[in-house]
Every structure is written in structure tokens, then in C-alpha cells.
Amino acid sequence: MPVGVRVLETTAEGFELDFVELPWGSEFYRETGRMMPADALETLRTFDSIYFGAVGSPEIPDHVTLWGLLLPIRQHFDQYVNLRPVKLFPGVRGPLAGKGPEHIDMVCVRENTEGEYSGVGGRAHQALPHEVALQVDVFTRSGVERIARYSFELARRRRGRLASVTKSNASPYSYVLWDEVVAEVARGYPDVEVERILVDAAAAAFVTQPERFDVVVASNLFADILTDIGAVIQGSMGLAASANLNPDGGYPGMFEPVHGSAPDIAGKGVANPIGAVWAGALMLEDLGEQAAADRVMGAIAAVLSAGETLTPDLGGSSTTERVAEALLEAVHEPAVRL
Ligand code: IPM
Ligand code: MN
Questions:
Q1: Can you give the three-state secondary structure of 54-83, one letter per residue?
Q2: Do residues 66 and 101 make contact, with C-beta atoms less than 8 angstroms apart?
């Protein structure tokens, strides 16, 4: 995150970026018993944007860290779009044989406030042999409709192709509602070619035929899983970025790398900062600072295509700090619009 802040501050021209650091997370939990203060959401509400690091610690159960911080922010600010670009940059060697930058260039639109992440359910007969756990998926017509509409609009601005991912063969209520609503919304977008694809087949196709995808829309859990595949086919988990948005306005967006807190490499100074920097570019774009966003993306593209300053996840041996320096030097390279 400090690298992202430095790069964003360097590219900010003609406007000011004012960062306020909120030290919430696992350390805060150990000190206070909470992941964030009781009035945290009110505090966040006063900002234009939230630039989010990563959360999770081996000593605290993941559902505590996540339901104490990240997921309430996504839900409270009704950030129903989680936008996750998947793009293989020139110069990056992805793991897929025979697939280059011309094959891997898509945007995943993850429904981000309901579905399998609604947080509805409960447990009964705790610790007894007949204990039961219910985790209820909640799909609403309005929730599916708004994410579908957003995805069609995005597809129209891109290559005009939308893949809608479900598992409506096995789950005949929620995903069939999804399919029906997508088909209804599709009528308003005759210029967009829609493909319905089951999530298992989609997972395979991400690997075998990534060129098939332009915009991909899926439920919260399915897109969570697919975008980890997306992250690695674009070269590394450390590159992937995401934007949590409420496109209807009125709430701050939240911008974060897709990767987690990576306890295996934490503190070693070798984490790839590019996912966080890219998330920063998505934030600049959302703030209306497109030119600065393009400069950040230009810097990322330049560092990746030079291939000289890469962290170990991309096959290099550079430190986070070296990559930061390379990015800061490269912000003067030509801008890139994704
Ligand atoms: C992500 C993460 C989160 C998610 C976890 C940490 C709850 O995996 O942003 O993809 O599943 O949404
Ligand atoms: Mn995930």
C-alpha cells in the first residue's frame, strides 16, 4: 500500500490527493477486540474513496477478520459491483502455453453484495451429533438486474460480448432467477452478444480458451473463484486489482488488490506492489482523474514490458522497493488506457 500511495501521489497533477491512514485490521483486533471501531462505517462515509490493503492473519479466524472489516464495508456502502480486470500485459509470461496478450483481456463483474455472501444463515444443535448449519444464498431480482445492466453497459463499451456464469442446472431457484433476469435485460442490448455458461465449464474455459471472454458477469462466490483463475492467467496473483463500486453514486468506492495478506511472504519485502498500484489506478479513474489513471497504467505496462524489475512471483528477483522505484521512474512513460 505505501508503494501505491507514492505512485498515486506522483501521478497526481492538477489535483490533490489527501490520504488519511486508518490502521484497522488484525493488529487493531488484538489491541481492541474489534477489526475496526464501532463508528468505522460513519468515518469511512466522509471520504471520497477507500484504498484498501489486505486483511487476514493466521492467528485470527478468517470469518472474524472478513466479517469484521472487508465484507461490512462492501455491503454497507452497497458496492454491488466488484470490477476485476484480467489482462495479460506484454512482457509477462503467463502460465498458459500459446496464450498471449491478444488472448487474455477481459473484465469480470462480480456481484458484490448478495448471493452466496449475504451472510444469512445460522447453526442449531451446536456441538451435538445432529448439529446443523444453514448458509443461505440470497438472490433478488433487483440485485441481479442492476449487476446485469452494469455488465451489458460495460460490454457495449468494450468488444460487445458478455458471458453470464451460473450453475442453474444444479441450483434451480437462485441461478434460474439469475438467467431469467439476464435474458430480460439482454433484450435492451441487442448489440451485445450474450453467452450463458455454467461455472464449471467457465473455469475450464478460462484456462483453455480465455480469448472467448470479454465481459464476464457472475455471482459473488463464482466470480470470487473465477477471478483467482483470472489473476494467475494474467501472470500472478500479485498483479490482480479490483474496484468495489456503487455506480449509482452517493457512496465511496473501495479499491483493493485481489490478493490477501500473504502471511508466507509478509515482511520480507518481496510482495508484488503492482496489484495495489493497479487498484489505485482504478480509484483515480472512479474519482474522475482519467489522465492520472492512464499514467499509472502506463508505468505498470512499462515496468512489465521491460521485464527487468520484477518480484519473485513474476520470475524476477527484485524487491518491492526496487519495483516501486521502477514504477516511479516510469510514470513519465506514455500513458495507457485499458
Ligand atoms: C476477495 C477475497 C475475499 C472475498 C475474502 C478475503 C473474503 O477472496 O476479495 O476475492 O472472498 O471476497
Ligand atoms: Mn477472492
A1: CCCCCCCCHHHHHHHHHHHHHHHCCCCEEE
A2: no
Using a CB cutoff of 5 Å, list residues around ligand 2, an ion.
224
Distances (CA, A) of 21 to 13, 42, 298, 323: 21, 15, 26, 23
Task: DSSP letter for 85, please.
Answer: E
- For residue 220, give the ligand 1 atom closest to its CA: 12
Of 335, 318, 298, residue with least CA distance to 89: 298
Q: Which three cell numbers stand for residue 295?
A: 499514467
Task: Judge whether 20 and 49 are in contact, CB under 8 Å.
Answer: no
Q: Which residues contact 282 (CB under 8 A, 6 or more apart)?
A: 83, 85, 241, 242, 243, 255, 293
237 lines ligand 1 (CB under 6 A): no
27-76 per-position pLDDT tens digit? 999 999 999 999 999 999 999 999 999 999 999 999 999 999 999 999 99
**Phi then psi for 124, rounded to 5 degrees?**
-130, 165
The model carries a pTM of 0.97
8 A C-beta contact, residue 116 and residue 219: yes
Whole-angstrom Cα distance, residue 248 to residue 47? Answer: 17
Calpha distance 159→156 (Å, rounded): 7
